[in-house]
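Input/output pair, single chain:
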Amino acid sequence: MEGNPQNPAKRVKTLEEIEGMRVAGKLAAEVLDFIAPYVKPGVSTGYLDKLCHEYMVDVQHTIPAPLNYAPPGHRPYPKSVCTSVNHQVCHGVPGDKVLRHGDIVNIDVTVIKDGWHGDTSRMFYAGDPSVQAKRLCDITYEAMWKGIDAVRPGATLGDIGFAVQRHAESHGYSVVREFCGHGIGRRFHEEPQILHYGRPGQGLKLIEGMTFTVEPMINAGKRDIRQLADGWTIVTADHSLSAQWEHTVLVTEEGYEVLTVSKGMPAPPAFVAERERHPA
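Output:
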């Protein structure tokens, strides 16, 4: 989505709106908690989608935002979650594909509750991943948190992108540039775009009350991608592995608050806890 850097105040949420975002974010994260035990060899991505759909609709009474979502130029998305396996970068369409031992899979969930969107994704392992695959997932998780940890009033979008890019590239990985994080609220995708590469001090300045996603897609090989014939699934051009993690974040008075939290979510990396114990 194209942002309007001249009007950042239009993207600020009120206290009441933020509470709605907290509820939606928690529910989205809880879908990932629910589905985790089912991600294993022999299970199809279509079955995972079915389970997530039923949990969202019948248990949470939420709306799966991806289902029939049709941005300009796209056919309606046919499923309730995205399942991107191995070299699939994002927007993998669940179907007959059966997970094999060692596969890595990103499950991307967005729910709508009382009009508010909660958006989050995690990497899962079907059985034991290879050392290389686990390292990619771990570094991508850290890269997401490097970006989140750069969030505070007065920081810029370039600060977030730089933090992500520096961490990923310092470990020999590449950052996908065609897809990015986004503002979120009553609409699935709002301003601004949150690029996962950039230069410090450049771009829109963050202000308290903004809500957006940080969701880097990191490739083990080159950053080039291509789209499959289904019109949605994005894969690495060189068939290398790709990983992604995502949280929805609120800019607070002193820093940030992660809105997509749940009991089963992975703990933040050690460097986040260390900074919280010893703030600058």
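Helices lie at 15-35, 45-60, 131-149, 157-170, 270-277. The domain at 12-277 is CATH 3.90.230.10 (Creatine Amidinohydrolase).
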